[in-house]
From TrEMBL:
Pfam families: Cupin_6, HTH_18. InterPro entries: AraC_lig, AraC_XylS_family_regulators, Homeodomain-like_sf, HTH_AraC, HTH_AraC-typ_CS, RmlC_Cupin_sf, Tscrpt_reg_AraC-type_HTH. It comes from the Bacteria. Keywords: DNA-binding, Transcription, Transcription regulation. This is AraC family transcriptional regulator. Residues 168-265 form the HTH araC/xylS-type domain.
């Protein structure tokens, strides 16, 4: 589930709310909110939720709600956009609000990550948007895990990405080493199934063919490597392509542009503040 749900962090802000202050949020873009200090009530159309210091709220599809400070509160907010393919089934299965109470207690590193995100958002450094998104992915993944561990995640949600444990072994192998020369035969053997049975079970469980899934995983990994300034030639080798040209052709089919063009697109600009 977490592997299929990756985010890009856009605008980021830190607010200090006085007791009684109201902070409305309205929009279709996903957001996360972290209560660094204080306490707030989150009021929506039909419910109100109290959040104490250390709590994390993920609104995967955005929506309208208002924070009302019960005491002086420091609130961190980040704008989230899904940046991975194949995330729609998981995203649609998540509730409007994923809340991780006592998040800092479960994940002590959260405070340091939030501090780092605030620093990246306030400085105009090269690649700040990419760094901010990487940190945001860690936070969102840890929050969803904490939410599931607390018993809030439904069985339907947990089974969205995969309902076949045998196919799961093949998926684990692909993600562990996407550059391997994966074939239908090799993956079927890992899943202890015949070629035809494995191909059908994979399609039913994942929603696409093994070959298409391997290609998509490789492209997601390629984008992460390119964002880290790895050379195109090295990416081609690490992901199992026979040549830089072969990788470039595959990348262009998937993304619509060559890898060099994608890497030099203005995605590493300083993070824009809200309202600009």
């Amino acid at each position: 589930m977490l592997e299929r749900l990756r985010w890009s962090v856009g605008a980021y802000r830190q607010d200090t709310l006085k007791p009684g202050d109201r902070h409305p949020v309205d929009g279709t873009t996903g957001r996360f909110h972290f209560v660094a200090a204080g306490a707030v009530d989150v009021r929506g159309d039909a419910e109100s939720v109290a959040l104490q210091a250390g709590a994390f709220l993920l609104a995967p599809r955005g929506g309208r709600h208002t924070f009302v400070a019960r005491e002086e509160t420091t609130l961190h907010t980040g704008e989230l956009t899904v940046a991975s393919t194949g995330a729609a089934p998981v995203l649609s299965a998540l509730p409007d609000k994923v809340i991780a109470h006592c998040f800092v207690c479960r994940e002590p590193i959260v405070a340091a990550l939030i501090e780092k995100m605030a620093g990246e958002a306030s400085q105009d450094r090269p690649g700040s948007r990419s760094v901010l998104s990487q940190l945001g992915n860690v936070l969102a993944a840890a929050a969803i895990r904490s939410w599931v561990e607390s018993g809030c995640g439904s069985a339907d949600l947990l089974s969205v990405p995969l309902k076949d444990s045998d196919v799961g072994r093949a998926l684990a192998a692909i993600h562990a080493d996407p550059g391997e020369p994966w074939t239908l035969d090799r993956l079927a053997r890992i899943s202890l199934a015949s070629r035809s049975a494995f191909a059908e079970r994979f399609r039913l469980a994942v929603g696409e063919t093994p070959a298409r899934y391997v290609a998509r995983v490789r492209m997601e990994q390629a984008k992460r490597l390119l964002a880290e300034r790895t050379t195109v030639a090295e990416v081609a080798v690490r992901l199992g392509y026979g040549s830089e040209a072969a990788f470039s052709r595959a990348f262009r089919r998937h993304e619509g542009v060559p890898p060099t063009t994608w890497r030099h697109a203005p995605t590493g600009e300083g993070v824009r503040p809200f309202g600009r």
